[in-house]
Recover the amino acids of this structure.
């Protein structure tokens, strides 16, 4: 009876003391993200400090008290993860204490996890064959890279999912999606809402190939030039050619 009571007390306190929530996706993807087991454990300790001790910027010395490596080694690991864009240090203003403080941000980690999640989703959709369109993980990765290069940043979870939906749900070809990205870049409007409007316009006009896009654009330009003249035609063509070369390198994956 005593042993049982002790066991109940132990399990009760174990639950009361809390736990660190760890995404399964991180366990299956950290190696692909260039992290090793020591860096993974360090991330877990950073989460524990934030969740349990309310410390968003623990020192290397504090972290080393829970690990088998020195504070100097932890400092090097932190610097490495910042370089890998897994961690960032944010400077925020604390209104209660009226001073600036530092904290670790995991936004970069979650951005990278989102990209891995999107690729896994592409693989699952492909294997389940829910759509007649075959989109491999390699093509999905190529699309993400093209958008990230044009936007100059990592894609958000919503943006990655939207690109996949264009291909699977709306059944736009990868070539057509890249062409819409190119058109948006030429016009200096780099957001998915505008790109979606381009794809929707093409869909309304039953355009499903690059040849049809080209013919549609030629007709549109002819109408515009008839109204406004051709003074800006050459500069627009040069800009279009520069962006076309930049984006066309991603088409080699599926053409």
């Amino acid at each position: 009876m005593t042993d049982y009571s002790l066991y109940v007390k132990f399990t009760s306190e174990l639950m009361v003391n809390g736990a660190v929530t760890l995404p399964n996706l991180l366990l299956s993807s950290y190696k692909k993200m260039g992290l090793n087991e020591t860096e993974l454990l360090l991330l877990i300790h950073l989460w524990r400090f934030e969740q349990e001790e309310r410390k968003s910027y623990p020192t290397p010395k504090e972290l080393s008290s829970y690990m088998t490596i020195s504070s100097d080694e932890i400092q090097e690991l932190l610097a490495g993860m910042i370089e890998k864009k897994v961690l960032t240090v944010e400077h925020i203003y604390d209104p209660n204490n009226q001073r600036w403080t530092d904290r670790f941000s995991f936004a970069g980690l979650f951005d990278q996890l989102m990209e891995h999640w999107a690729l896994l989703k592409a693989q699952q959709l492909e294997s389940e064959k829910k759509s007649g369109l075959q989109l491999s993980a390699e093509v999905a990765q190529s699309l993400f890279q093209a958008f990230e290069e044009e936007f100059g940043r990592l894609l958000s979870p919503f943006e990655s999912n939207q690109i996949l939906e264009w291909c699977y749900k709306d059944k736009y070809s990868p070539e057509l999606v890249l062409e819409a990205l190119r058109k948006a870049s030429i016009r200096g409007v780099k957001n998915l809402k505008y790109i979606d409007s381009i794809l929707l316009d093409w869909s309304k006009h039953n355009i499903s190939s690059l040849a049809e896009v080209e013919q549609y654009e030629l007709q549109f330009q002819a109408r515009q030039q008839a109204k406004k003249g051709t003074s800006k035609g050459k500069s627009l063509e040069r800009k279009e050619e520069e962006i076309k070369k930049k984006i066309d390198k991603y088409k080699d994956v599926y053409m």
Remarks:
- Residues 116-253 form a domain with the Arc Repressor Mutant, subunit A fold (CATH 1.10.10.630).
- The first helix runs from residue 2 to 16.
